[in-house]
Specification:
With 367 residues, the protein is of the alpha/beta class. It contains eleven helices and 16 strands. Helix 1 runs parallel beside helix 11.
């Protein structure tokens, strides 16, 4: 008999399994994919670590979270400075003086602020949706070139129907600074992410290529408690209706050139290009291999037979999630965590934080 059955070997599940094993608890980790690591998983081809489920750049402002991750890896000094490609025109992201200067042929913060100030005035009341929020933040030009097309492709919905929270984390700066993030700690684990999970799961037992939901009865009998990090609505057989998610398709290509796009991430912000991003993996680790591997990221409508990558945290889905949370609270000895278990647009650092808080609470006084 195991103490814990952990469903999912992503960050939440692996951290919990690690913390519980450290305290002497027996854990069985069940993962439906054929590998560990969830969406952070990296594989190696041509000497290049491939971010198989899209660019994963670790960042945080919380030193404790950074130190915790550094128990399992060493981060390099990568700083994410993506490029926007709008119909072939190239701009720096996030929105900063480099972007504004190319867009309006200006050079000073004063000029940029004046232009944006004038354009923001079209939004008179408190912004009600993503479109209004974006215009009131950066004005109409930036919205139309860099946000509208990208966001509507990515989410498959009009910016008028989306919550502003989706873009709140993108910085707007009146200095010449292309760092996509504000956090003081940022990097890519040297050697890729998968080794982190191998270390976290070293003392747990692991069943790969096993869907808990298809073997629920048999697996549930194996442990006293269950930690479920899959989609909360899938656990309840979608009995209250399905929550909505956004999915993606990744097309990986090996190219016979050493440097394809000169940067790790390019965002295609126009509507016409069918993918949202291209990633050239070698640049995450400053590689100089002969070949290169590039991934195109195509947004997809989610259906039950494909991966739910992004929760859609609008009012409608949030209300439905609250109802599932009600059901979750009635389950005995089953706990839900992580991006899908909590239905939250979590970054890695958020999943780490949530997993550590949960582990502390759950394992307190036990062992
Ligand atoms: P997951 O990684 O989703 O792990 C859940 C695991 O459970 C999966 O392995 C899944 O296969 C398994 N599972 C689900 N259902 C079952 C079942 N029924 N039976 C068995 N196993 C099951 N964060 C950042 O901080 N920086 C970034 O740059 C970044 N980029 C991202 C890019 C993309 C395209 C995506 C999709 C996410 C990105 N993230 C990024 C977010 C990051 O991936 C997540 O925050 C983190 O991986 C969440 O970990 P988790 O354990 O909660 O979930
Ligand atoms: N976004 C945008 N233009 C860009 C980059 C991002 O409009 O060039 C918006 C888009 O709605 C996206 C959100 O900002 O979904 C969050 O962007 P981020 O890069 O954080 O997305 P993630 O890495 O989570 O896919």
């Amino acid at each position: 008999m195991y103490d814990y059955l952990v469903v999912g070997s992503g960050l939440f599940g692996s951290i919990f399994a690690h913390e519980a094993s450290q305290k002497g608890f027996k854990c069985l980790v069940v993962e439906k994919r054929e590998h560990i690591g969830g969406n952070c998983y990296t594989s190696n081809k041509e000497g290049i670590n491939i971010h198989c489920y899209g660019a994963h750049i670790f960042r945080t402002s919380d030193k404790e979270i950074w130190d915790y991750m550094e128990r399992f890896c060493e981060f390099n000094h990568f700083i994410n400075s993506p490029i926007a490609n709008f119909k072939g025109e190239i701009y720096n992201l996030p929105f900063n003086m480099n972007t504004f200067s190319k867009m309006w042929n200006i050079s000073t913060p004063k000029e940029a602020k004046e232009i944006i100030e004038k354009q923001r005035k079209t939004i008179k009341s408190t912004p009600k949706n993503l479109e209004e929020h974006a215009i009131s933040l950066v004005g109409i030009d930036v919205y139309e070139k860099f946000i509208k097309g990208y966001t509507e492709k990515q989410w498959g919905r009009s910016c008028k129907e989306l919550p502003a929270s989706i873009i709140r984390r993108i910085p707007v700066r009146f200095i010449y600074d292309n760092n996509y993030f504000n956090d003081p700690y940022q990097g890519i684990p040297k050697g890729g992410y998968t080794a982190i999970f191998e270390k976290m799961l070293a003392n747990a037992e692991l069943l790969l290529s096993t869907d808990f939901l298809k073997n629920r009865e048999e697996l549930s009998k194996k442990a006293k408690k269950i930690i479920f990090t899959g989609a909360i609505d899938s656990y309840f057989n979608y009995q209250l209706g399905a929550l909505e998610y956004r999915s993606l398709e990744f097309k990986h290509k090996i190219l016979e050139v050493d440097n394809f796009q000169g940067v790790a991430v390019v965002n295609y912000t126009d509507r016409e290009t069918p993918y949202t991003r291209t990633i050239e993996h070698k640049h995450f680790e400053f590689g100089n291999q002969e070949k290169t591997i590039v991934t195109e990221e195509y947004p997809l409508e989610w259906t039950r037979d494909i991966e739910p990558y992004y929760p859609i945290n609008d009012d409608k889905n949030q209300k439905l999630y609250e109802k599932y949370l009600g059901l979750a609270k009635k389950e005995t000895n089953v706990y839900f965590g992580g991006r899908l278990g909590e239905y939250k647009y979590y970054d890695m650092q958020d999943s780490v934080k949530s997993a550590l808080e949960f582990s502390k609470k759950e394992l307190k006084g036990l062992s």
